């Protein structure tokens, strides 16, 4: 059986990302980490995620990054294209971790039971 090629997207200092790393490693699930801060994120990747999850489900409106934006900027995000452009510019506002296997993607805060249902 081929090994699954999970990719965990996020930023390394995020508590939810750290918990995901610990859980995945504890269950011997291999993954590669994609750091938004150093590697960015492509428009095509965000477009694919938006098609699967909806752009509204990718923006973390509780993030400091989102909250610090001017209300005019926040209110202007009404389409997928606008959301993608903003997420590319401010990657810290993307919910995390985003975990991808092949082209399928999930975004979820860390919860051990949910991770077990999803990855085991």
Automatic annotation (TrEMBL):
PROSITE patterns reported in the protein's UniProt record: ARSC
Signal sequence extent: none
Top-rank lineage group of the source organism: Bacteria
Pfam name, any one: ArsC
SUPFAM superfamilies: Thioredoxin-like
Classification via InterPro entries: Arsenate_reductase-like, Thioredoxin-like_sf, Tscrpt_reg_Spx/MgsR
Family statement: Belongs to the ArsC family.
Protein's UniProt name: Spx/MgsR family transcriptional regulator
Organism annotation: Taibaiella chishuiensis
């Amino acid at each position: 059986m081929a090994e699954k090629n999970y990719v965990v997207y996020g930023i390394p200092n995020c508590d939810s990302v750290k918990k995901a790393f610990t859980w995945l490693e504890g269950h011997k699930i291999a993954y590669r980490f994609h750091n938004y801060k150093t590697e960015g994120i492509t428009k095509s990747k965000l477009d694919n995620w938006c098609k699967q999850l909806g752009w509204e489900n990718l923006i973390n409106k509780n993030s400091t990054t989102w909250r610090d934006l001017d209300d005019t900027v926040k209110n202007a995000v009404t389409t997928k294209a606008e959301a993608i452009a903003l997420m590319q510019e401010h990657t810290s506002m993307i919910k995390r971790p985003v975990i991808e296997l092949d082209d399928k993607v999930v975004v979820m805060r860390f919860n051990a039971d949910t991770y077990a249902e999803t990855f085991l």
